[in-house]
Write a structure and sequence with these properties.
- The complex is a heterodimer.
- Chain A is of the alpha/beta class.
- Chain A folds into 2 domains: 90 residues, Defensin A-like, CATH 3.30.30.60; 164 residues, 3-Layer(aba) Sandwich (Rossmann fold).
- Chain A is built from 7 helices and 8 strands, in the order βαββαβαβαβαβαβα.
- In chain A, helix 5 links the parallel strand 6 and strand 7.
- In chain A, helix 2 packs parallel to helix 7.
- The longest helix of chain A is centred in the last third of the chain and has 15 residues.
- Chain B contains 20 helices and 11 strands.
- In chain B, strands 7-6-5-4-3-2-10-9-8 form a 9-stranded parallel β-sheet. In chain B, strands 1-11 form a two-stranded antiparallel sheet.
- Classes of the chains: A alpha/beta, B alpha/beta.
- Chains A and B meet through strand 1 and strand 2 of A and helix 7 and helix 16 of B.
Amino acid sequence: MADKNCGAATAQVDLTKVKPYGDTMNDGYMELAFTLPVPYGEEAEEAAKQYVGKMGMQEPNVTYYHELCPGYTFFVVYAKAQHTIDFTTIKVNKVDVPIYDREECGQWIADNIGRDVVVVGASTGSDAHTVGIDAIIQMKGFHGHFGLERFKNVVAYNMGSQVPNEELIAKAKEVNADAILVSQTVTQKDVHIMNLTNMVELMEAEGLRDKIILTCGGPRISHELAQELGYDAGFGPGKYAEHVMSYIMEEIVKRGWQKKAKIEDR
Amino acid sequence: MESKLNIDPKMVDSARQHAANIAKDMQEFIDVHTTVSTERTILRLLGVDGIDDVETPLPNVVVEQIQAAGGLPRGAAYWMGNAMIQTGLEPQAIAEKVAKGELDITKLETASAKEAEDAIMPAVHESLKKIKAQTKAREDYLSRLGEGSKPYLYVIVATGNIYEDVVQAKAAARQGADVIAVIRTTAQSLLDYVPYGPTTEGFGGTYATQENFRIMRQGLDEVGEEVGRYIRLCNYSSGMCMPEIAAMGALERLDVMLNDAIYGILFRDINMQRTLVDQYFSRVIIGYCGIIFNSGEDNYLTTDDAYESAHTVTASQFINEQFAVLANIKEWQMGLGHAFEMDPSMKDGFLYELAQAIMAKEIFPNACLKYMPPTKFMTGNIFRGHIQDALFNLISVWSGQGIQLLGMMTEAILTPHMQDRYLSIENASYIFNNCRDIGEEVEFKKDGIVQKRAQLVLSKANDLLADIEKEGLFSTIEQGKFGGVKRPKDGGHGLDGVCSKDDQYFNPFIPLMKEGAE
């Protein structure tokens, strides 16, 4: 062991060259689980080993393998990763506002906006899942985080699931929404991307894109993806009503909409 | 049987009586109404199939013609029977002529309802014989091959491509699955027609078509022979075409069908009058052909809190049981639903889930209860998810559930990969075997957490049912008492497909199916 840290009880991490950590700094240990469409047997085990080797990992150890059905074998593999990452150069595009809790949001709106914040949300297109939009809007919220219906100075409309983009926009116009929340749960064959893109196109066609804050959310949505698709913000797993409202209210002030409750004035 | 939960049998009887009154009250409405989908079902059962040159299914073409002429209150059976008398043709040939614009069956000479019914009866009996042959085929398979032990392991396939679904389904059966459900493509529930032919494109699932049913049935029969166990097929008799799909299921030997009007009302915004009328005919078909129906109470807990609203599940199970009784469905065919959806961070949450599951079994001892896995609090942490599924499996074997929809650790991430299904079946098989007789061995502390919880939920369910009996089911749903979702009586999809029957209306299938003809 030529490592200069080997005498220390714990090696110090070098943030410019980070590797996975198992139980010793820089051991590179990772666990993998996957299926190969090959018949079960020792050749399958060897194939899994070689495959993990090709991924740039060393000492692959197939700890378990099992025939799923003829022609398909499942593997659990432990191996040591070699690649490193420079953590000091990582930049992430994220919703960058202070997060207030529900009561603070209500007070902040009263102090800084002086009128109700209006939002309209729906699970759009063919998506029948309401779990996401309900978690954000419905009074009871999710996992102990109350939804927007329980926020003071917020008026929230939950249109439910399978709402056409056109209807969501019409509702937003009708109630002079400050923000639209689009929820997408089904992501098979990228149906959510098509639907989210279509929403942006419709907003632009109606000349509303810069008059309503447009946000989206769902288990497979990140802020980065949302921005790429032309949204103002995106909210993924672990984000609750307070995250969404903290962003929206800051944005209203940033855009100077305090006295512009009506869309036509913005 | 002695109640392990010390629940009051009088309270159970009271709840059941309230539910019976609720169902009876609704049945009075159902009996004097029909729907476009109910009428299309009659045509399908009479052998009308296929599509026209713009891909509209022929049952739709014919019913649209009848509806446009204001003839829907008389019923498709009358118009078809009359057309058979006037043209001398069979139902399919008549439908084809209608599709080509060569025939308007509402503009022919009209015979009496009695004559029309006599004309149609041979076709009705032929159809019932076909269904009975399928029911017999299932019985033969079950006696020759046998089946997995309960709780049946139920897994889903959802590739969008029926041929790929067959590959996945066979793999799952080889891994130990007993029931294969083909998830429908997103939004099919709102289509007011059933697509036609084999399909290879879908989002989040595969179209329910009669041909797809046939293809999957054949695949499961093949793998059933191979593994020496009958593999059941499940699909959805739900949405705008609820009874049509039940008829397709009867003809293609499906074994399990999701079927719950209240689910469609709450979660698909289907008009309540429409779907409750549709549900009746679909349940008569299901009862007749030996399909197990699954109700959708589990879904309430995805939008409502599983601890606070547990009694709405129990109340709805009572109502679903009574709707099933009115459709002459046997107890073993009643797949009443519930779910393991309490927040895992809740202290003693496992005990509350256990109380609920054992209570369901005590109240509906002969039903084929369907237990749904955690979904709402699955996070993407697959390791914890696998443990949540393990606790769910433990309750299932403990409480004697009939059908176990296997939880997947990749829930909330993606539709299951092949290895996820294997790990899930392994999890369930391990626990079912390791704890096989735990339900027989363990009793509960008198007035302890489990007993008290069951007693409380039952009592709240009884109160809710008393309320519903007073208010009526329509009004209860309008107030948002199920799933926390409010739906207006005249809102939602499909109300324009509902009408009152006239005094000469007849549906020849309902009385014959209810008496078990052929």
